[in-house]
UniProtKB/TrEMBL annotation:
Reaction equations catalysed: DNA(n) + a 2'-deoxyribonucleoside 5'-triphosphate = DNA(n+1) + diphosphate
Source organism per UniProt: Glutamicibacter halophytocola
Name of the protein in question: DNA-directed DNA polymerase
Entry keyword annotation includes Transferase: yes
NCBIfam families associated with the record: holA
Class of this enzyme: transferase
Length: 330
């Protein structure tokens, strides 16, 4: 018999007030957005009181007090943070509350994971809690979906190239990606295109690294060197640029000679479909033997920039020239 799949939960964007809500996952930024959304919805009511509790520093009776009606409110929104570090006092009081819930209240708790308090988590789920997915967003495809959802919520249009450029520039941190979306929405008008993204974030290490790598593997040594020298001249560390070069060349090697659809290859290779499509286009004309030589050159360059050379910049320039020379003439 096949095992039932665990409920991954709804998106925080779909969240509406419910008597019992459990945010699951270690992405604090998504949890903070969920808390913020409910808080905003609660602020539209005059008869609801908002209380924040820390489960790791909880004092006996706090939950009972927070969920009780008062002269000033007939309902309560209670936020519980640090559920994964809950103490025994919270465990006891929360277990009691689950047995006698007040349906007019909204109790929202964030559980980042772990084994502590697992019986309570199971009890919360069994009590019919709305599960909200706050798992880390790691894949570029998921980050692209996040950016597009941010723009859709703000009723702003953004081109596909602009989305990819933004993810490449600030995609390491979801919180930073969200902040960047907010800045573009507030500071620009009309359709957000790649030029706008480059204007705001084109100087970022990640964005620069991809521009250098794309120019090199396309055989455009002049553009790659110009971008690299400007970047190094403004204090950019060469290590992430080497890492991006390595990633891009390995992606070419993975897709070279493979004719399967991008959507099929994406899951097999751990890449987003658009990354596969881009790599397939860039791989045209490349020889596998030349890609192998480029990978060796990048590995040597990596050692050089990490202490093996007095001039990391020169070593990186040498690698870019080497890759550009091996690139097929278009």
């Amino acid at each position: 018999m096949a095992r039932a799949q665990a409920n991954p939960g709804i998106s925080w964007r779909e969240l509406t007030p419910q008597p019992l809500i459990l945010l699951t996952g270690s992405e604090d930024y998504l949890a903070s957005r969920a808390f913020e959304l409910l808080r905003s919805q609660a602020s539209q009511r005059e008869d609801i009181e908002v209380t924040r509790l820390d489960a790791s520093k909880y004092e006996p009776g706090e939950l009972l007090l927070a969920t009780s009606s008062s002269l000033f409110s007939s309902a309560n929104l209670v936020e519980v943070h640090e559920l994964a570090q809950m103490n025994e006092y919270f465990l006891k009081d929360a277990t009691s509350y689950l047995k006698d819930q007040a349906p007019e209240n909204v109790l929202i708790m964030h559980y980042s994971g772990g084994t502590r308090g697992k019986k309570l988590i199971d009890a919360i789920k069994a009590a019919g809690a709305l599960i909200v997915n706050c798992q880390p967003v790691k894949k570029d495809a998921e980050k692209i979906d996040f950016v597009q959802a941010e723009m859709k919520a703000a009723k702003r249009r953004i081109t596909n190239d602009a989305v990819k450029a933004l993810v490449a520039a600030v995609g390491n941190s979801l919180a930073e990606l969200g902040s960047s979306c907010s800045q573009l929405i507030q500071d620009t008008t009309g359709t957000i295109d790649q030029d706008m993204v480059d204007r705001y974030y084109g100087g970022r290490v990640e964005a620069t690294a991809f521009k250098v790598a794309d120019a090199a593997i396309s055989g455009n040594a002049q553009a790659a060197l110009r971008t690299l020298r400007h970047s190094l001249g403004t204090g950019t560390d060469p290590i992430p640029i080497v890492a991006t070069l390595a990633m891009k060349v390995r992606q070419l090697a993975k897709v070279l000679g493979v004719n399967e659809p991008a959507a099929t290859l994406a899951s097999e290779l751990g890449m987003a479909p658009w990354q596969v499509q881009q790599a397939q286009q860039q791989a045209r004309g490349w020889k596998r033997s030349d890609l192998a030589l480029c990978i060796e050159e990048i590995a040597n360059t990596d050692r050089m920039v990490k202490g093996g050379s007095r001039s990391p910049g020169y070593a990186l320039e040498h690698a870019i020239l080497f890759i550009s020379e091996k690139a097929p003439k278009r």
